[in-house]
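Sequence in, structure out.
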Amino acid sequence: MTTLAPPLAEERILAESPQRPAPVVTYPESDGMPMAENTEQFQWIVLIKENLEALFRDDPRVFIAGDLLWYPVQGDNRTRVAPDAMVVFGRPKGKRGSYKQWDEDNCAPQVVVEILSPGNRAGEMTNKYLFYTRFGVEEYYLYDPEEHTLDGWQREASLL
């Protein structure tokens, strides 16, 4: 027969202490950055986003947004990005202040489009590519209106 030692005073205090509520995390709806750096970039963002809306207007389960903050990790309001345009299949249309993935059946945007501007730096675009790779984007398109080039990446296994 095994006998258990009585709990230590510290263990008893911890067991009887009320649980502290988790800290409340706020998720800002704006990052304070402008949607576009110039009129050409703005026109391309609007054109692509609105054409995606038109393409999927009859499908109530396709959510499309432009310059909307996407938070992929609950409890972390610093891990975020605002794609110029994004498409999420399987999520209802509707208004959102931000896209909190955990509130959306943990569904990441499947398609992301970014429009380059003169102020974009290689490091910034590399970080976005890595973000989209890490958090499950299936297709990523990068349009450069100055060079008239469109680059695209499609996920294969764990990489874009």
